[in-house]
Design a protein that fits this description.
3 strands, mainly alpha, three-stranded antiparallel beta sheet
């Protein structure tokens, strides 16, 4: 079984993949496609899906072998991913503004005469 960090990464990867599907107007992803895209063993994909489903972030249709047959984001899952996307955009914008401010100060410092 995967370590904690790996399990968290698998969960994030599942959410990102499903959110990408939503952005392309696909409401559901087959378990086979998800497994293939993410390159996860059945056991790890199933564990990630169980966790995310228990959190109310995804819904899963299971095969008789307890592997995902079809997976989709719930409303709460979409809201979580949208909030994350907005937070990342805000952080990127703030980083870009900070860089521009530093560049402006450096340019002003170079333009000042010495002494």
């Amino acid at each position: 079984m995967a370590k904690l960090r790996e399990r968290k990464n698998y969960r994030r990867a599942v959410l990102r993949s499903l959110y990408g599907a939503v952005e392309h107007n696909r409401t559901e992803v087959s378990g086979t496609a998800l497994r293939s895209e993410l390159g996860l063993p059945d056991e790890d994909l199933s564990a990630a899906c169980v966790y995310l489903a228990d959190e109310g972030l995804i819904s899963v249709e299971w095969t008789s072998h307890r592997t995902p047959a079809a997976v989709s984001l719930t409303h709460e899952g979409i809201r979580l991913m949208e909030e994350q996307e907005e937070r990342e955009e805000r952080e990127d914008r703030e980083d870009r503004e900070d860089r521009e401010d530093r560049e402006d100060r450096a340019t002003a410092d170079r333009a000042r005469p010495n002494g």
